Here is the input.
Amino acid sequence: MKLKKNIILGKTKIIQFILILIIILLYNESKLIADSNKLQGRFVELKILDKVSSKNSILNFEIGKEEKFENLIIKFLKCKVSEFDDSPEITAYMQVKDITEKDNDKVFIFNDWTFSSSPSLRPFDHPVYDIWLTKCY
Here is the structure.
């Protein structure tokens, strides 16, 4: 009979160990999700240069809302700061429409990811305006 008690005691310890392991894994996963939410911003800051007048403007945009600047309609769908502390990379998904263009085939003049450290990776090519991503917060 003593042997059976030891086996039952061993089974309960294994079950307790598995439950503790599951709790630890769930806690770590929720912490990772919370940390990744801290890295995603709700607002984006842009610098816009008007090449004709040489005027520099700094604008703030809320993620998901279209904003009008001169002849452009700008919308950000996502913004994220990298996890690296040395030199954090800011990336954002941006859509830009030009109101003056009447070409129905082309909806956006820019519809892609943009990077703060190297805007030339996906250049915003417009005859009047240059756009740089500066912050995600």
